[in-house]
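Is this the right way to post structure tokens for a design question? Let me know if I should format differently. Anyway, here goes:
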């Protein structure tokens, strides 16, 4: 695909359909500390394993070349696109560094389908948090498709990582593979930016968005990231936009299309960025060149993580009361009404998969549910298993508080201020005082 051809995409976009000003902006700040930390990042569309079976470009002929290109750069974090589970497993088994993979396939499977996963060096970094969402009208429905593209579901996987040798080196990486359909790609960019605003609450936390965007630097999709404060690291480094193609069609082309990018905000410097054209006797590891980035990030105090496996108490910030699974009423509703943390105020935080959490009330060992059968029903500790209504997004607000968002109805949990005993309800569209909680052990 030539750059001149991609220019035609500009003619089919109606910019007013998409609001670039609709992204929730981070408001809290992590303190920036003296010093910095160096990272090596890679985005790599590895081409599906079975797509070229029976040809010279089959996976069996290029898998070791792919391992060599990874080993030669040794990225700390690598966002993959079009990866099959067997390809991911091959990298984990054969790469020199110790990698762990995060994320499911675009169909929501852990074993089948195309992955837009993130691999990180588990010997160097601790996983503080992670999640995934789909680039559709229903981001938390696995496998959901954009209304603009009925062919394939598209998604983003993200991680929050902390360096093991420096607890204040913390950053976020969002990985994606945008649609070939312009309107769907634009929608996908908007969803990603919206979710960075939801998950990254510290306004000065280093954040990267990388992947196969299927769009060049002249695309409004590219401009959407730039206008939202995510700078193209290729442009930041002053690199040329001539002979800069990242799609090569296994032919070694230099300027077919630059569509693989890493955008960044709140970084200290771009030290080096390259389109890695490594090949062995004319055989390439993929039909895309990997893009490698050496970057320096500042140190911050944004080090919070989800307390998976821990038993905690929760306290409503607005009234200072503990959240209690009240024992003397039917169905054990949750209220922000207790003045001390005893058994009925303790909850175990459980990993519910896909970056979500569930809460088990320690008093009755039942899951907290946001299931609403009538208007304004409180959360209740009454479920024996995890379904959609028992899954929440644990959101750090950057100010020492957390909020919870129900996956089932996409609403925030609130300790509503205008009812007796302040029942918790999943019914609010944004975070204010009554949607903030502190926690401890």
């Amino acid at each position: 695909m030539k750059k001149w051809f991609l220019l035609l995409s500009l003619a089919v976009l109606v910019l007013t359909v998409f609001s670039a000003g609709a992204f929730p902006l981070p408001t809290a700040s992590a303190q920036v500390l003296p010093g910095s930390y160096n990272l090596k990042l890679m985005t790599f569309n590895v081409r599906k394993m079975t797509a070229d079976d029976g040809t010279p470009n089959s996976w069996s002929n290029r898998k070791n070349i792919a391992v060599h290109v990874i080993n030669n750069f040794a990225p700390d974090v690598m966002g993959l696109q079009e990866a099959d589970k067997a390809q991911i497993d091959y990298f984990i088994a054969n790469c020199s560094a110790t990698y762990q993979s995060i994320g499911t396939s675009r169909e929501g499977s852990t074993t089948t389908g195309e992955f837009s996963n993130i691999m990180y060096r588990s010997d160097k970094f601790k996983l503080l948090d992670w999640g995934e969402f789909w680039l559709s009208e229903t981001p938390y429905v696995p496998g959901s498709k954009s209304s603009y593209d009925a062919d394939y579901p598209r998604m983003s996987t993200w991680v929050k990582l902390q360096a093991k040798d420096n607890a204040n080196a913390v950053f976020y990486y969002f990985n994606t593979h945008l649609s070939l359909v312009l309107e769907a790609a634009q929608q996908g960019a908007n969803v990603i930016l919206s979710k960075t605003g939801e998950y990254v609450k510290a306004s000065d936390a280093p954040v990267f968005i990388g992947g196969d965007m299927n769009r060049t630097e002249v695309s409004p999709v590219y401009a959407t990231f730039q206008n939202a404060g995510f700078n193209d690291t290729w442009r930041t480094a002053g690199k040329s936009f001539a002979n800069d193609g990242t799609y090569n069609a296994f032919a070694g082309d230099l300027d077919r299309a630059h569509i693989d990018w890493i955008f960044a905000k709140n970084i200290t410097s771009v030290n080096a960025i390259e389109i890695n054209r490594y090949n062995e006797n004319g055989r390439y590891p993929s039909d895309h060149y990997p893009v490698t980035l050496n970057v320096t990030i500042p140190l911050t105090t944004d080090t919070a993580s989800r307390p998976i496996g821990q038993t905690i108490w929760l306290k409503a910030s607005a009234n200072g009361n503990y959240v209690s699974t009240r024992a003397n009423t039917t169905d054990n509703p949750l209220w922000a009404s207790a003045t001390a943390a005893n058994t009925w105020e303790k909850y175990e935080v459980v990993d519910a998969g896909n970056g979500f959490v569930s809460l088990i009330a320690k008093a009755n060992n039942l899951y907290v549910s946001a299931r609403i059968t009538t208007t304004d029903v409180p959360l209740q500790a009454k479920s024996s298993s995890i379904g959609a209504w028992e899954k929440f997004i644990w959101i750090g607000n950057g100010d020492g508080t957390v909020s919870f968002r129900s996956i089932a109805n996409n609403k925030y949990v609130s300790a509503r201020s205008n009812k007796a005993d302040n029942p918790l309800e999943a019914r609010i569209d944004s975070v204010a005082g009554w949607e903030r909680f502190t926690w401890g052990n």
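Format looks fine. Someone answered above. Worth noting: Helices lie at 3-6, 59-73, 85-94, 182-199, 220-227, 233-236. The radius of gyration is 23 Å.
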